[in-house]
Amino acid sequence: MKGVGKRTYFSQGVVVTSPTNVRVGNDVTINLRCRLDGPGGLDIGDFSMVGINVTILSASHDFHDISVPMKCQGINTKKTTIGKDVWIGNNAVIMPGVILGDGAIVGANSVVTKEVKPLNIVAGTPAKVIGVRGK
């Protein structure tokens, strides 16, 4: 991998694709059966917690040319950034190019398609702000 910090823990069944594009900070926990998708670049900040069965993507299939099967169109990549002290709940999906600000929380089973500002709490499909930490 591009870099793994100190005291970082990877649980069983974690899959990392394109690991040379993935950086994980210090004191991070990546739980059971997570998928870290690195083709577009993926950074996970210090003290972040990634729940069970979370998928964090940095690439998706191209599908714009209807005369060519989607499988044959290649992929689009976008760097995904998880800030410091972020908590991502079980079964969440973080889509390519998303930025999760420092201190953000993502509820279980959520699909995050847009940037999440620091300290915001989001949940749902697609994820929407449901609160702010410290208020």
Short summary of the structure?
By secondary structure, the protein is mostly beta strands.
Mind explaining what this structure looks like?
With 135 residues, this protein is mainly β. It contains no helices and 19 strands. The chain has a seven-stranded mixed sheet, with no helix packed on it. β18 and β19 form a beta hairpin. The relative contact order is 0.15. The mean pLDDT is 97.
What are the defining features of this structure?
135 residues; seven-stranded mixed β-sheet; 37% strand; mainly beta; single chain; five-stranded parallel β-sheet; 19 strands; globular
Helices and strands in order, then pairings?
Blueprint: E1 3-4, E2 9-10, E3 15-17, E4 22-24, E5 29-30, E6 35-37, E7 42-44, E8 49-50, E9 55-56, E10 59-61, E11 75-77, E12 80-82, E13 87-88, E14 93-94, E15 99-100, E16 105-106, E17 111-112, E18 120-123, E19 128-132
Parallel strand pairs: 1-4, 2-5, 3-6, 4-7, 5-8, 6-9, 7-12, 8-13, 9-14, 12-15, 13-16, 14-17, 16-18
Antiparallel strand pairs: 10-11, 18-19
